[in-house]
Amino acid sequence: METAAVIAELNPLHTGHLYLLEQLRRSGAQRVVLIMSGNFLQRGDYAVFDKFDRASAAVTCGADLVVELPLPWALAGAQPFAFGGVALAEALGAVDTLAFGCECGDAQALTQVAQALTQPAFSQAVKAELANGATFAAARQNACETLLGQERAALLSGPNNALAVEYITALQGKRIEPFAVRRVGAGHDSPEASGGEPLSGSALRANLRAGQDVSAYVPPQLLNGPHTEADRLDQAVLAKLRAMKKSEFAAAPDLSEGLENRIFAASRQAASLEELFTLSKTKRYPLARIRRVVWSLFLGVPAGACRLPPPYLRVLAANETGKALLTGYSLPVLARAAQVKALDERAKRVFELECAADDVFGLCFAQPKPCGSYFPVRL
What we know:
By secondary structure, the protein is of the alpha/beta class. It has helices at residues 15-26, 51-60, 71-74, 78-91, 107-117, 120-131, 136-148, 150-154, 159-171, 201-209, 220-223, 234-243, 246-249, 259-269, 273-280, 287-299, 320-324, 345-361, and strands spanning 3-8, 31-37, 40-41, 45-46, 65-69, 97-102, 177-182, 313-318, 333-334. α1 (15-26) links the parallel β1 (3-8) and β2. The relative contact order is 0.16.
């Protein structure tokens, strides 16, 4: 291991992330790259701190370079999220290791699961489970149990294990090796400290927005800056969806089996965003998926936007070691505003979509930010 990459949201950057960075350095990593989601996230929500503040804090706390995972991939399910992040890691050229935190901490076991998931027999088993009404997550775990047994299949019940399997799948055929670090502390999305420290990101976000002291877990550099408030865009999202035609709902990513019809109907009835999510959710469609579809509709992310890899490397923060990594890359690098002009048409569309989402994100603060606050690139 010389140059390790981590795909993360850092929402917010906390002691669990610092533990992962520390483990990488102890394992020999000379350089650490973070591939970080921007201002909107995989859970279908906006970040508690803006992306430049999170990236700057990450470099202060041990990373060398932070590049952005663009909106279509950041606001997507686990498979396209991992696909986009791995593509950027490979495009940097120097990355030889992809590191991730997970419940089991066993890259070899997760690799066995990932390999099973690519077998034709697995796809057939999943289809059979889905036909019986199982959710995709349950169908995948049951199909894996058929192929590998209960112990290996149980790994998929851990959300970070399941994401790690997607990372490893995306790494197949590439020269980048997976490196697993066992998570410690509270479980994923745990609302309290019952699992020990570090706390989960969900608990920290809730505590932070409630005015509680989280200085033991979140770097002071972040806490000294402004954070977003919950529910700032709820009425705007409902207004946008109510103004849309039914046919427009079919243009969102990650739709199947008439899901757009449920969301359209719910948007005509719901008086709050949470009610919209509740009315749209079924056993077949998990809440996170509903949330992502709704936010994609609101932000204008089109279906198929993340079918191809991200088209550029946007630098959010770097130290001198990180800047030295920006050689040998295979994608355009955005580190200055002038470099945007050289992008091809697809890359420009992705970048313009990102900038528009950033301008919307500026309304999530107690003191809203004007348009253009996240452009040009800061470095």
